[in-house]
Amino acid sequence: MPGFEPHNPFGSAAQLLWQRIQQQCRPLKLPVVIGIASRPVTRTAFTTDQGNNIMQQIRAAFSNIPGVTMAPWLDIDPIKGIVDTGVLDNPMAGDNKEQLSKIQIEIRASGQKVGAAARFNLSAHGWNGYENCSPSLDPFTVSQDFIGEEYTSTDELFNKVAAGVWQASVDTSNPLTLTVRMLSGLPVSAGWQEFFSDKMRRALSRQNAEEKETKIRAERHVSLVIAHDPAGDEDKRWDGMVTIDPRPLGYRISVSVNRRNTTPVSEDGLVTLDELPTMQQWAALGPASRRTSPTPRLDASPLRINARLDGGRSLQQYPFSVGQESYVEVDIPTASIRGPQLALPVDVLGPNNAPLKTIHIPNPSRPNLRRYKLAAGDYTIRVAGTGPAAQDFQLRARAVATNEMLLPEAPGRLLRRFQDWYASVAEDPRTGQRTCFAYTAAQEAGPRYWREQAPFILLQASSAGNGELQHLIEDKRYYKPGARFEAMINEGGTARRLNASPTEAGNFIRPMKQGSNGQPILDMDAVAGYNKGTTLEISGTTPDGRPAHVIYSLQGYRAAVNAMSLECGRRDLANALVWK
User: How many whole angstroms separate alpha carbon 516 and alpha carbon 205?
Assistant: First the structure.
């Protein structure tokens, strides 16, 4: 479609449809009032927050067109649906009925998922004097990044595939083989082959057990095998393939199972890093003294090992190597520890087992986190016991070249990815109270070697009542106290200053304003202003006097904040920060 831009799908589609409206709906009297109707269909293809995200993008795209005035609602369908009930005649309903009567063009979107993307139709429908106006666009494809990628589990993926395979299998025995590959062509560790084979085996066993219980038809059985019997019935053979595509905070997993003369059964989804075992066989190495395999090389994908200290003066040591000068991060998350002590002594040892100096800034919420700047070479991680009781824990380690930055780990469990923003949730197992997050890591930060981990913006809200929104855009410890600090939101080529300043308590820099009592409070209007921006740029001075800058993308902010609000039942935040 000429003029369609894949990197700006809804914005360019809105411009193209507006051109057709101008051509086919003459004479137009500006401004034209436009209403956005309904979430995309097929509704089963999108979650609620994905649908909201799509409609928000379409509404924002039309609101940026000169000569267009938008109706005051994100979705006019609910308003249309109750016009005849008399509810809108109630004085408490305000001027909703009057506003509805002013709409001249209704924009409707429909779409359905096609693999990892979606196909959309965008059309206009005239009202109130424009009834003969009904232009539409040819279907266009939108990347999943603009819809919102939803994180799933490997169990869910394999259970769906197993159900499809079972349904399409014939009576008696149906053997299935499984191959695992990286989309990039890199080799796959034996640990991953074993992991995915176990997932498929368990999913098939569950389906076979359900068949025995229901006994609807003659029994059939699907089983995972290492290789097909050459003498077996070819019409009963299933060949499975798992394809792994690394993403910034997880992997896209595609599972496809094929049989001759049968439609393939396939599922794909995004899973978090923690869903998969480590790429190298770290756990199989054991203590350095018993190591027989090659030393694993760290990279940006975290290596993880579940380990145990038996108490007393026991310790565990794990060798690793880095191929070039790197920032190395080692951590034992407190949530993974089973034992009386949450702080475990963690060190990285260099040549001759000499402990190395950490560049980590202490963080009370991550007492076992250590960071190092290491030259290429071999090193050892040492974890020591702290008392007589046994301790179970998970050790994590990763490394990136010093010309890049470590990505921060997700707070809580990842839910969605919307372009450059993420939504996640953490739940207190004792109270059931949820804490929800929307966040993004910096696209750029300088000067070089200024910091080992990418800066990040974080919005945090609790499901308890109407608790305060917590919001930070930077860590003041990376800036020279008292030096000039500035935050600017870029809005389509123009810049708007954000009144951001360090808080007296804690290490955060936040958008602030003066409250009615004269005390500084979070500026909710400023945070809502992220809706109009494309980037947020911060400039300041490093502690040693060098000019510093950080650039955040705001693409996906609206959708991530909406998803955060829905997850914690905080519609008030969505209203204040997204729909205001």
Answer: 64
Pairing of strands 326-331, 391-401: antiparallel
Instruction: Report how far Cα 104 is from the mean position of its chain's Cα atoms.
Output: 38
**Which is more confident, 360 or 183?**
183
Token pair, residue 572, equals: 């008030």
Spatial strand order in the sheet of 370-374: 303-309, 391-401, 326-331, 370-374
E strands in 9-139: 32-37, 68-70, 105-114, 117-126
Strands (E), 56-171: 68-70, 105-114, 117-126, 140-143, 149-150
503 by Cβ neighbours in 10 Å (0-12 / 13-18 / 19+) ranks as middle
DSSP 8-class letter at 294: P
Return the DSSP state at 363. -
3-class SS letters over 176-232:
EEEEEEECCCCCCCHHHHHHHHHHHHHHHHHHHHHHHHHCCCCCEEEEECCCCCCCC
Q: Is the dihedral of CA 31, 37, 41, 45 positive or negative?
A: positive
The residues, ordered by sequence, that sit 6+ positions from 252 with a Cβ below 8 Å of its Cβ are 116, 244, 245, 268, 269, 270, 271
Other Cβ atoms within 10 Å of 139 Cβ, number:
14
Cβ partners under 8 Å of residue 204, min gap 6:
162, 165, 166, 176, 222, 223, 224
- Residues 518/508, Cβ–Cβ less than 8 Å: no
Q: In this predicted model, what pLDDT tens digit does every residue of 312-363 receive, in sequence order?
A: 778 888 888 998 999 999 999 887 888 888 888 899 999 888 999 998 666 6
With 0-12 / 13-18 / 19 or more C-beta atoms within 10 angstroms meaning exposed / middle / buried, residue 234 is exposed
78, with CB counted inside 10 A (0-12, 13-18, 19+), is exposed
- Give residues with Cβ within 8 angstroms of 97, minimum separation 6: 83, 88, 89
Bridge partners, residue 108, by sequence: 37, 123
Give the pLDDT confidence score for residue 215 in this predicted structure: 63
Paired residues of 326 in beta bridges: 374, 401
Question: pLDDT tens for residues 129-158?
Answer: 888 889 999 999 998 888 888 889 999 999
Which of 525, 519, 520 shows the shortest CA–CA distance to 509? 520
Taking alpha carbons only, the member of 201, 275, 190 closest to residue 240 is 201
Other Cβ atoms within 10 Å of 377 Cβ, number: 11
Measured at the alpha carbon of residue 539, what is the angle toward residues 535 and 545, in degrees to the nearest 5?
A: 155
Look up residue 133 and give its two tokens: 């106006």
Name the DSSP class of 13: H
Q: To which H or E segment does residue 284 belong?
A: helix 282-285
The amino acid at residue 472 is: L
Question: Alpha carbon 287 to chain centroid distance?
Answer: 35
Helices (H), 64-143: 77-81, 96-101
pTM of the model: 0.75
- Angstrom distance (rounded) from CA 308 to CA 394: 9
